[in-house]
Amino acid sequence: MKIKVLAVFGTRPEAIKMAPLVRLLKESREIKCTVAVTAQHREMLDQVLSLFNIIPEYDLDIMKERQSLSDITSAALKGLEKVICSSDPDIVLVHGDTTTTLAASLAAFYQQKRVGHVEAGLRTGNKWFPFPEEINRKLTGSLADIHFAPTRNAKENLIREGVEPEWIFVTGNTVIDALKTTVDERYVFSTPLLNVIDYKNKKVVLVTAHRRENFGQPLENICMAIRDLVEEFPEVEVIYPVHYNPSVRDTVFPILGDVEKVHLIDPLDTREMHNLINKSYFLLTDSGGLQEEAPALGKPVLVLRDVTERPEGVDAGTVRVVGTCREGIFKEAVKLLADESEYRKMSGAINPYGDGYASKRIYHAILYYFGLEQKRPQDFIYESTGCLKGERQFD
Length: 395
Known about the structure:
Helix 1 crosses helix 7, helix 3 crosses helix 4 (99-110) and helix 4 (99-110) packs parallel to helix 5 (133-143). The protein has helices spanning 12-27, 43-51, 69-87, 99-110, 133-143, 152-160, 174-182, 192-196, 217-232, 246-256, 270-279, 290-296, 311-316, 326-338, 340-347, 358-369, and strands spanning 3-9, 31-37, 58-59, 91-95, 114-118, 146-149, 168-170, 203-208, 236-241, 262-265, 282-285, 301-303, 319-321, 381-382, 388-389. The strands form 3 sheets. A 7-stranded parallel beta sheet has the order 3-2-1-4-5-6-7, with helices on both faces. Strands 10-9-8-11-12-13 form a 6-stranded parallel beta sheet, with helices on both faces. The chain is an alpha/beta fold.
């Protein structure tokens, strides 16, 4: 009998990180993998599904205009109850910290199904930052039976919360697996503007800012800091894919819409974004995933938040938390633009988030959990010396 795995996700970031794992599980002879999407994000999710050629067996299509967290939670919970009853999985795989993740974990628990949590154990220690993701992660961690922690630090967070170490596997992050298939030095963008930017002679700063805790004054501060940068540095051009959320667009366009050298574009699909990261000079972002993706491509990241649940990047020197103060953002960006040694120090740091084998570790951990393999898969280990251990297991 095959192990029946139900993989559930609902947003573009989840889909990007689950795609390499889903593709691997679909190829397995020991596992039958079924995919359910809530479509908490519709258009952006569909871009990823198309890129990785994933056709969900279940699509709840819950997204509606100006949806609240309660809308998403209730619709996903009710819909996934039916999916779980219909598919009868041995384990439900969820990813990260979204509302879909929490709802899927709770729906699985109500049906007395095991839960596997991919990208488990990230914590800021503050339930309001990031909101609502910090609590989504903690509650999912309480419901999960098997935890796939991307780093040793994430594993230690879980142990402190009472999780049994035997069922925590340090895997690295699956987004590094995805990057292996999406980045191409000869890539031609489907967004015409991105093909005419002078990446060689300009310092292109890629910006993303859309988190709920930054709505209002923090996002205004971020936009004003961007204005300051392009006015101060003639060689800087900014590319800002602006999230579709009206709370973001209603702030960003009035402040930056008429600023020369600031290009406001629609959100990019995964391949476009990964290749744009690769061509950029550095990133200003409040995204969690970009804190992992950009360092893998040698790009410094200035995080537009007061705290991060990904301290490994800060410790490694690839990431710096700069907050949402206009003056603070400007000051830290100037360091990278004006000080070549400061830039080299961040861009040359080793990415601590993975080696491209996270999906294989998760696959073998599932087999181990269900008794189909006797040997526990080796943990991913990042050493402060910059050495990555564990990849030879899958050579």
